[in-house]
Amino acid sequence: MTINKQEDNGTATKNNDEDEFTLPTIEGIEFVNYVNEEQLDDVMRLVGQDLSEPYSVFTYRYFLHRWPQLCILAVPTDNADDDDDDTNETKKGSENRRSRNRRPIGCVVCKIDMEDGDTDDIISLEQQQQQKQQQQQQQKSNHNNNNGTTTTTSTASSKGEQQTNQIESQPIVKNNGTQFTGYIGMLAVEKTHRRSGIGTVLVQRAIHRMAQLGCHSIKLETEVTNKGAMNLYEDRLGFVREELLKKYYLNWGDAYRLRLWLTG
User: Fold this and answer.
1) In terms of pTM, does the model score above 0.85?
2) How many CA atoms lie within 13 A of 123 on its CB side?
3) How many Å separate Cα 223 from the centre of its chain?
4) 111 vs 186: CA distance, rounded Å
5) What is the maximum span of the chain, computed from C-alpha positions, in angstroms?
């Protein structure tokens, strides 16, 4: 397995800035964001293969509609054979289309909660971007009015458009002093691609995004008997056991609640 470095927006980079956070990637695997329900079947297929209890489509939509930026899919880069129709497309547009059409082989699905389980005060990424654009436009308007010039919003709008596919570093806290916890609800990798680091990278990327969005810790539940998951979360990623949940699953299986405390 070849490990490279990549910015979280999915674009490979040669980064010389030590302050710029970079994440490991895997050669031959592209990590792409959830875009729309065209990818819902892939998420359900991946997650459903190893579930101890079934999820309804409404459960998936609850996560994916409210926190689409916290669903990341792993897609092989060497199984796309749809170059025949690329003659009238730009190279960039063709690559984006192939990314959507390739079959994902792994995914992670997360959400963000308040400590008491309430999510009413959480501001989504899209709301953050809209508020930021409005603030930029208002500041520019005030500046131009003070200088006796006419107001233009084209610059602010163009900047806002460039930010729509980027992960904001601003916290999502709506009211001062409230702490938010990230939650890893689903993680799945096809059996043929396990033990190659894909699950680790998916979780690392999800943790990084939730940290950017203001979470002070990350939690999850996993079956006591799931040794692979326990090894991943405890040994590789530093999660600690917080609680034993007796007969937590529909099959009466016990679960551990694990938590990772974020610093800085």
Assistant:
1) no
2) 18
3) 23
4) 10
5) 71
